[in-house]
């Protein structure tokens, strides 16, 4: 069960580049809409501790493969 205005993050075990998030997860807003959450560890400057930067975006949709279009017979192919 998801609570409104709450979410979860998981360590990104598939990270291969520094630009990819350290953590990914989901978030449910007050309207019940699900969002994608990505977070990165950042180094603190001027003696500050590490911190997390995050982005909330629309959820990623799986690529849907459309079936090939079936050609409909045209009237030009009828031999009479």
Describe this structure in words.
- The chain has strands at residues 6-11, 23-28, 34-42, 51-57.
- The chain is mainly β and 80 residues long.
- The protein has a domain at 6-59.
- The radius of gyration is 23 Å and the shape is elongated.
- The N and C termini lie far apart (65 Å).
Report how far the terminal alpha carbons are from each other: 65 Å
Beta-strand fraction estimate = 35-45%
Q: Approximately how much helix is present in the residues?
A: under 10%
H/I helix tally: 0
Q: Determine the structural class based on helices, strands and strand pairing.
A: mainly beta
Q: Record the strand order, biggest sheet.
A: 1-2-3-4
Please summarize the sheet with the most strands: 4 strands, antiparallel
Shape: elongated
Radius of gyration: 23 Å
SSE order, one letter for each helix or strand: EEEE
The count of DSSP E runs of length 2 or more, i.e. the number of strands, is 4
Taking pLDDT < 50 over at least 5 consecutive residues as the criterion, the unreliable ranges are: none
Average pLDDT confidence is: 81
């Amino acid at each position: 069960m998801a609570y409104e205005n709450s979410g979860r993050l998981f360590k990104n075990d598939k990270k291969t580049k520094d630009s990819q998030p350290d953590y990914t997860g989901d978030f449910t807003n007050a309207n019940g809409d699900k969002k994608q959450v990505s977070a990165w560890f950042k180094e603190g400057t001027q003696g500050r501790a590490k911190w997390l930067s995050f982005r909330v975006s629309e959820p990623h949709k799986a690529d849907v493969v459309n079936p090939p279009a079936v050609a409909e017979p045209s009237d030009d192919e009828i031999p009479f």
